Amino acid sequence: MPHIAIISASVRTGRVSHRVALYFSNFLKEKNLATSEILDLNAYQFPLFEERLKYQPNPSPGVIDFATRIKKADGVIIVTPEYNGGYPAALKNVIDLLYDEWHRKPIAISTVSDGSFGGTQVITSLQFTLWKIRAWTVPAMFPVPHGPKTFEADGRLVETSMEKRAVNFVNELLWCIAAKQKMENP
What we know:
This protein is of the alpha/beta class and 186 residues long. It is globular and about 45 Å long. The protein has one domain: 3-Layer(aba) Sandwich (Rossmann fold), CATH 3.40.50.360. It starts with a strand and ends with a helix. Helix 4 links the parallel strand 3 and strand 4. 42% of the residues lie in helices and 19% in strands. The protein has a five-stranded parallel beta sheet, sandwiched between helices.
């Protein structure tokens, strides 16, 4: 069974995107599709980094822990809010922190906003950054419009029409994980 790291990218108080991270964690478990863990950037509280992990003389235990969890994951779901058309600095910070850990890692992107576009403006810039570090971005995306009206604080889905999209999104990630494993172990 594959293992998926879910990055909850917001560090704001009252963050709505964390609800979506909780949803995917529960979804994967309930459907018995994968094991998962949420890597909550709010819990890590990383300082701004001056250098990539591999060049840091004395990386903190939190940095080592995060890097190890990304490396061990078969795939990653990034759940990010949209801040003024972009993604949070905390997410950019951890993407730039690592390099080898992202190489050919299947990554699925979920964006969240209070508005009707669901954070879709974030997708292009985040995808470009992930391509530059040689990650494998999954073609399926999961934008969430009207986040507070779509998910409860505990991650339960309010808008049930989103379930079909979630199935397609997760299946695409799982397909990419399986394809990568076949390519690496023919």
